[in-house]
Amino acid sequence: MSTNSNRPINELMGITMEKIKEMVDINSIIGDPITLDDGTTIIPISKVSYGFASGGSDLPNKSEKSLFGGGAGAGVSIKPEGFLVISNGNAKMVPVSGASDPVSSAINAIPDVFTKVSTMIKKKKGTGTEEDIPEIEEE
User: Fold this and answer.
1) Is this model's pTM higher than 0.70 or not?
2) For residue range 109-128, what is the model confidence (pLDDT) as tens digits?
3) What is the DSSP letter of 88?
4) DSSP H or E segment with residue 31
5) Which residues of the chain form beta strands (DSSP E)?
6) Mean pLDDT, the chain, integer
7) Terminal CA-CA length for the chain
């Protein structure tokens, strides 16, 4: 098999990568700064995820004409994460509420669940006190 750079798959991959570059730039991740009248600067921050796949095959044939079959695809996801707020020489990240996905929410809840379960086990064994029982918040 030849490593010729003029193969149709190389052109297909090149075009797909160029289109991805057009869609995603640094301004997609770190937004344009917004400066308020009091001097506070707010910078939007986003999470950008993208994927790329391509494939193809040069098929053997009896004629001079090359037979090629192939395809390429890409996907981009942009999710707002929060804002970087810079005021009076201090910077802090202000997350967008409700922006986390279910997997992140589950991972973030593990310490709280562990504490509640271990407290219930202590209470059942008689080694815990009423103060050890966490209050369950209803949402």
Assistant:
1) no
2) 677 766 776 676 777 677 65
3) T
4) none
5) 34-35, 41-59, 67-87, 90-95
6) 74
7) 61
